[in-house]
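S1.2 Input.
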Amino acid sequence: HTAAEVTLIDRLPVAGGLVRYGVAPDHPATKKVGDTFSRFHSHPRVRMHLGIEVGRDVTAVELSAHHDAVVYAVGASTDRR
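S1.3 Output.
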């Protein structure tokens, strides 16, 4: 939907996860994913709440009460090694 608004909640204080913090400089293709994320994060219909952990700072019930849809997308908390 072209008028949809997105609220992104990230437990880290800066968005991007391991793409931003855990990718070695010799992996430029993977680093480019971060550029895509940056464009998304700066979109005018995207609101970001950083440093918030679902289950600790806000509940699933609270999210459902304030949003039409909730998608849980959990990234990796460590690298593959």
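S1.4 Remarks. The CA atoms of residues 26 and 32 lie 12 Å apart.
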